[in-house]
Q: What sequence folds into this?
């Protein structure tokens, strides 16, 4: 199958290549050739084609909090509202909401998503007939939406460092112990466009012994964990263990080349050194971090230490990877009083290649042998009108928005054409229906 991109970001080509022929076989790219006229049998991609956007950190059900949780308070008050929502979900509602939310991502150019999944069980922690009913709902939702999924099944065992009992909503997150978590996850099978990864919810929610077990069980898979999102998590961890969350994660063997730490907002230089030395990547979620008042992700320090940075929409306050990419730099400008701290190509790489790697899908480049996952940014909107080819990477990062995405191909299959999802033609209606269903208790 042939595609012809007017402009594209091609592996090994400096800057933006023009007139690029992308040839696919099955789910892979087999040839990528710049500077050729469009053959008659090639589908035109009018705009700027980039490797598929990778959303490395998502909680699909948080989509229902958008516009509903803008109230005074801190992170912990927001979490109370999130728990109220979680209490209303069952596998059917979860499926409908995740399907619509993933479709929103797909039309925003996302080709791969990492769903950090922790709502496993029924009310009061009662097991569904299928103990993975919720995970299977997420898997079915992603397949319907046409997005590649890494299901990061999260272990969650305790309410915090003080070992108070789990509240009723948290009981839905818990498998009881790490062995039971591992046994349940073992029953989930990877397939086409699906990888099963593991997650430690946080150093709050899993005790050190449990973390060690999860890290061991996760070998050969991607492992993600929330790390140092809130100052209270860091101080609580220090008080309980004498170690920072990153030190604790390192000591239990949870930091590795295949690990992604999500947030890493409040990290010491020692923490940075541990992340860098282990090859652990960091996923920043700046639109969520600003929404929750978490703090500014230390992207400049992380990048300087050589830590790979990926991006995530996390709470779905915003689903727009271009916005995440520029927010990484713009938030740091506010903190540093300087501009141009991270190059646009680096930021676009965080939204594409680094995310693909963090989710276990490979290099995320337009190159022979790579996955045929790509996203075309249309250049016809008021935001991008007049953009010159040489400046397209900068425009993508600083001016593009999710509605500019015109075409999305995942594994060689068209999922978005001319801005429309090909199998879910009315994504807003799907979202509205899924959200309305949650209003009945
Ligand atoms: Zn999260």
A:
């Amino acid at each position: 199958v042939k595609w012809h991109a007017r402009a594209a970001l091609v592996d090994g080509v400096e800057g933006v290549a023009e007139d690029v022929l992308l040839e696919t076989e099955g789910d892979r790219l087999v040839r990528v050739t710049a500077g050729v006229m469009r053959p008659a049998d090639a589908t035109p991609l009018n705009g700027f084609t980039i490797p598929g956007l990778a959303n490395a950190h998502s909680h699909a059900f948080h989509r229902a909090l958008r516009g509903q949780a803008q109230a005074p308070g801190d992170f912990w008050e927001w979490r109370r509202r999130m728990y109220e929502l979680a209490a209303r979900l069952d596998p059917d509602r979860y499926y409908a909401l995740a399907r619509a939310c993933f479709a929103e991502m797909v039309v925003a150019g996302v080709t791969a998503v990492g769903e950090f999944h922790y709502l496993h069980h029924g009310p009061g922690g009662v097991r569904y007939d299928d103990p993975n009913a919720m995970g299977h709902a997420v898997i079915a939702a992603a397949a319907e939406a046409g997005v590649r999924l890494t299901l990061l099944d999260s272990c969650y065992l305790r309410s915090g460092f003080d070992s108070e009992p789990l509240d009723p909503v948290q009981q839905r997150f818990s498998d009881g112990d790490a062995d039971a978590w591992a046994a349940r996850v073992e029953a989930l099978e990877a397939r086409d466009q699906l990888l099963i990864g593991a997650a430690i919810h946080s150093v709050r929610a899993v005790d050190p012994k449990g973390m060690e077990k999860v890290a061991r069980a996760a070998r050969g898979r991607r492992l993600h964990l929330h790390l140092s999102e809130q100052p209270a998590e860091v101080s609580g961890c220090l008080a309980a263990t004498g170690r920072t969350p990153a030190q604790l994660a390192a000591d239990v063997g949870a930091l590795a080349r295949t690990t992604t730490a999500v947030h890493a907002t409040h990290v010491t230089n020692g923490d940075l050194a541990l992340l860098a030395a282990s090859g652990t990547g960091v996923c920043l979620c700046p639109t969520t971090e600003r929404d929750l008042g978490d703090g500014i992700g230390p992207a400049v320090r992380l990048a300087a230490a050589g830590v790979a940075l990926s991006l995530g929409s996390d709470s779905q306050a915003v689903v727009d990877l271009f916005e995440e990419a520029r927010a990484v730099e713009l938030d740091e400008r506010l903190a540093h009083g300087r501009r141009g701290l991270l190059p646009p190509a680096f930021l676009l790489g965080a939204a594409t290649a680094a995310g693909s790697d963090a989710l276990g899908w490979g290099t995320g480049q337009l190159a022979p042998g790579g996955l045929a996952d790509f996203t075309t940014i249309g250049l016809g909107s008021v935001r991008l009108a007049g953009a010159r080819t040489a400046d397209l990477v900068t425009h993508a990062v600083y001016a593009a928005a999710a509605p500019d995405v015109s075409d999305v191909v995942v594994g060689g299959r068209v999922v978005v054409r001319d801005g429309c999802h090909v199998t879910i033609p009315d994504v807003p209606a799907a979202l509205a229906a899924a959200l309305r269903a949650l209003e009945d208790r």
The radius of gyration is 21 Å. The pocket of zinc ion is lined by residues 57, 59, 116, 226, 262, 314 (CB under 6 Å). The first helix runs from residue 75 to 86. The first strand starts at residue 2 and ends at 8.
